[in-house]
């Protein structure tokens, strides 16, 4: 075999030196990165104006000893239907009400009214005890609780007006304990919160 010329030998040596120099630079960079301290975690961010205490509603429970029936023969833009335990609920948007019943075969006039104290509601979320209904055009969320009237019938009592936000909608069903997500798309807000159940005082 012919010996390499001086220029070829010099070229190969230059390549070797460049490879060694590159490896050395990579090693230095790696050790420097591993030795650097981690950045401190950001402080907890609590956006002011997004959190607020819900407003307690004064309500006469005796008014539900006679549960009102749905007076409408037809739905007017129903936006949500769901079944919670053994009861069906329909959010009847343009009739500004939520109605409920134990089956889907009876005519609408046999359904009962859960609430008419909303404007253009769209959705309902519940864990079976606490019910959240978006009161869209009033920019709030209505909180109701499942109870019994003096006749032993199941009723739904409004207890709070909760999170406020422009045109809120509920986007996830609740579980126990009661987390939920409430979006206010017109205001560009997404609020994650929870409602604490009322606990009767011990006597």
Count of DSSP E strands? 12
Low-pLDDT stretches are: 171-181, 184-203
Terminal CA distance reads 106 Å
Helix content: 10-25%
Looking across the biggest beta sheet, what order are the strands in? Answer: 1-9-8-7-6
Helix-strand makeup class:
alpha+beta
Radius of gyration: 32 Å
Strand content: 25-35%
Mean pLDDT: 75
Largest sheet: 5 strands, antiparallel
Count of discrete alpha- or pi-helical segments spanning 4 or more residues:
1
N-to-C SSE string, H for helix and E for strand? HEEEEEEEEEEEE
C-alpha geometry: elongated
Protein architecture, described:
The strands form 3 sheets. A 5-stranded antiparallel beta sheet has the order 1-9-8-7-6, with no helix packed on it. It has a 4-stranded antiparallel beta sheet with strand order 2-3-4-5, with no helix packed on it. A 3-stranded antiparallel beta sheet has the order 10-11-12, with no helix packed on it. The protein is built from 1 helix and 12 strands; from the N terminus they run H-E-E-E-E-E-E-E-E-E-E-E-E. The N and C termini lie far apart (106 Å). The protein is elongated, with a radius of gyration of 32 Å. It is α+β, with helices and mostly antiparallel strands.
